Amino acid sequence: MAATTPVDRLTPGDHACLTFTDPEERLDILAAFVAAGNGRGERIICFTDAIGVDGLRAELLNRGLEAGRELTVIDSDRMWGGGSGPDAGTMVELLAHEMAQADRDGRAGLRITADMCWAARPQANAEQLLVFESEVGRLFAAGRLTAICEYDRESFDPVTLAYAARVHPRTVAATVYHEDPVLRICRQHVPPGVRVAGELDYARAGVLSDALAEAVRLDHDVHLNLNNLHFIDAGAAAVILRAAAHLPDTRRMIVICPEPIERTLTAAGAAAVPALRMLVRDGER
Amino acid sequence: MASAELTGAGQPTHKDPPTRSSEILLEQAFTEDSLYGVRAAVAAHVATVAGKRDVDTMVLIAHELASNAVRHGGGTGRLRLWLAEGALHCEVSDTGAGLKDPALAGHTLPAPSLPGGRGLWIARQLSELRIAASTAGTTVTATVLL
To answer: Looking at the DSSP assignment, which residues form a beta bridge with residue A217?
Structure first.
């Protein structure tokens, strides 16, 4: 059984599997992984599929990470060099080549993220995925390659997901404060804070209060991501206002939310809390 | 029906629920465990007659009134939703001890550092609110112009 690790605890040489259902969670973990690579002076390549190259660049930029010489975002197709279909041998060769390039550039190592959703397509051969995940293992032995392979739980069957979890020495997961069928509250890494998705009312406001208390302890400014929150009531809004009102003068709580949530927070008295900043994300997501 | 026995401030007006059941969009009893279902039902029914913004507004008001009934009005209540004269009306009644100061309730916003107490305030920000209370219970009717 693979050990579950928060993304900020991964160390060079780790080969981790990220299974996700919430796209925001995937992007948050990717951003934290990329930021850690920047901090270590590594060469970073993000192989992307479900999200287009420009889309992922924009999402990373939103989180303060700019693609440039050290951070490359490219299509997953490029992993198999434009051949007729995914070939595990080609992919492992490519990674070995990129690692040698990182050495020549004087980088501390190579860090990759790979969206594996190509492997769920009809033209792909699931067998190649399994060969790839096993073969690539030897590249990690030297401790200079670090990788996260992303598996969208909705694209893969349980057998493949179970195999993927087994061939990866680690699985990466968000730190979850609360999860039930209508509400999920977890820690957000980049920017640091709390992410809430679903519907939140007074009955669960205590869990949010605890999550915010941890963010207040750990972070200077507290980022509260409510982008996928569809409902909030007065009781839960009061918990947010209260946490922001108790911050010391120099600190802020930054709430990112859709317009209806902003309206409720405003009606609950957000304007009376100077430490609270609300950013309305435009458009429906 | 609980509301028929009330002798509070509200006089019968056009805002009272229609007597013919065909004009009522939704009528349901609720407890603490069914607030999620109340929100979903209100959203579905308001969406048949109004846009997204009004749906969000009515869902929030219905939830606040219903959760007040659950927390302070004896734990259960009844919600009715109807459309009349270009406005949506949501009536929530309970058979609890009765709200103490119906005329004053929800007219002041608590300080941000204090927990709770914002439900009726929010409902008043977003709708025209009538509160009738007696020892037999509380009935709150919110009206949102479409």
So the answer is: none
